[in-house]
Amino acid sequence: MATFHKVSIQEVIKETADAVSLLFDIPGNLKSKFAFHSGQYLTLKKTINGKEVRRAYSICSSPSDSYLKVAIKAVENGTFSTYATKELKSGNFIEISEPEGKFILEPKPNKNYIAFAAGSGITPILSMIKDVLGSETTSTFTLIYGNKTVADTIFKGELDDLKEANPNRFNLHYICSREQIEDSLFGRIDKAHTNFYINNYKDTSFDAAYLCGPEAMINEVSATLIERGFTDENIHFELFTASITEDNVGQIKEGETEVTVLLDDEETTFTMSQTDNILAAALRNDLDAPYSCQGGVCSSCMCKVTEGKAVMTKNSILTDSEIEEGLTLACQAYPTTSKIVIDFDDV
């Protein structure tokens, strides 16, 4: 269950024309609560134009850093991202959750890691790179990082510095789709680019791959890595957005469901339309259910169906075995039975 704490913003750093990073001032009594694994995220909560808005942003600092930082890139019509990149200032207060997320890397000795990131997908990957380079002197990290142009490349200066400081353990490759860079490939990260770099490191046996970016890139790179001998178990990814599962959408029918929600050791029962998702219905019934992205790409609203059934229209987080255990994402879950029991506590 997400727990929020009000903290001040120590610094707002302009990373690119449309991206900033926020450095938080974490009080000493809260530092232990914000210990994290590289790859995890924070949920930021702010009232904007009279409405509470929550969004998940990956942590870009390393677990060993003395500071906690996230990066935010403005997206078109993005309420929170536009506010954050244009309005937030040093000294402002904001509520942030304790770290969450299943897209993590726990560095081990004598390992070779490879990552493919696009745009702001670099944020959790940067945390992983710094964690590996800083904590495991016998491990290496290879990054393939795609952007439109050099000017759009978030954290380029920091990545270049890491390369200079770790020339034998950090392999750094940029790809731009709208600008040709000397000694770099051109275009978007795809099968050809993936094969090129795997061939380039044919003498290196990679132990794990980490992917973060658009769904099309994730799918194409994952499939290519499988063809090159990787297994599902050593390919880890996090999506910007998840696509709709049309088969599940077809199971959503007109009707009503009696929902019982167990949240913070209290039971609440209400009736909802089966064409509505469980999270939205819970919030309308004044339940403080956990949530963040509302797009099926984080795990903040994960809960368990203990009675009845529900289908998810989007899901990039839960495995087939977790779904079989009854886990679901409330923001994407639509009830398909007349009664359903949802447990937010037992996850």
TrEMBL record:
The alphabetical list of record keywords is:
2Fe-2S, FAD, Flavoprotein, Iron, Iron-sulfur, Metal-binding, Oxidoreductase
Keyword check for Disulfide bond, yes or no.
no
Q: Where is the FAD-binding FR-type domain?
A: 2-106
Q: Which cofactor does it need?
A: FAD
Which top-level group of life is the source organism from?
Bacteria
Annotated 2Fe-2S ferredoxin-type domain residues: 257-347
One MF annotation (Gene Ontology) recorded for this entry: 2 iron, 2 sulfur cluster binding
Pfam families, per the entry: FAD_binding_6 (PF00970), Fer2 (PF00111), NAD_binding_1 (PF00175)
Against InterPro entries, the record matches this protein to:
2Fe-2S_ferredoxin-like_sf, 2Fe-2S_ferredoxin-type, 2Fe2S_fd_BS, Beta-grasp_dom_sf, Cbr1-like_FAD-bd_dom, FAD-bd_FR_type, Flavoprot_Pyr_Nucl_cyt_Rdtase, FNR_nucleotide-bd
Q: What is this protein called?
A: Flavodoxin reductase
- Say which species the protein is native to: Polaribacter aquimarinus
Its lineage reads: Bacteria, Pseudomonadati, Bacteroidota, Flavobacteriia, Flavobacteriales
